[in-house]
Amino acid sequence: MTASRVCALSELEQDAALRVEVDGVAICVVRDSNDEVHAIGDVCTHGDISLAEGFVEGETIECWAHGSAFSLTTGKPLNLPAYEPVPVFAVTIDGDDVLIDPAVKKEI
């Protein structure tokens, strides 16, 4: 697979998340308070809840349903009830385009 354009960088609000789908994979794209763009699996590992509907703070996103927070850099849960990590994908910025290939996991 090759990286697909998922949105424009200018479409991503700071400290907010956007749900996209690439090749059938649901991905949560986040622009954090440091202006870095992250891409993680969109489904909370505790329940079938979209993380893009959650709350972004610093380098974490919190599931709105049960309160589990996940690291945007590692995908690891930072508190219960979730205990399984979500996948983290490599992000490429090309001009104003945000590109993600769901087959390429980010090296942690």
TrEMBL record:
InterPro entries: Rieske_2Fe-2S (IPR017941), Rieske_2Fe-2S_sf (IPR036922). Gene3D superfamilies: Rieske [2Fe-2S] iron-sulphur domain. The keyword Transport does not apply. Residues 4-100 form the Rieske domain. Keywords: 2Fe-2S, Dioxygenase, Iron, Iron-sulfur, Metal-binding, Oxidoreductase. Pfam families: Rieske (PF00355). Signal peptide: none annotated. GO terms for molecular function: 2 iron, 2 sulfur cluster binding; dioxygenase activity; metal ion binding; monooxygenase activity; oxidoreductase activity, acting on paired donors, with incorporation or reduction of molecular oxygen. This is Dioxygenase. It comes from Microbacterium mangrovi. It comes from the Bacteria.
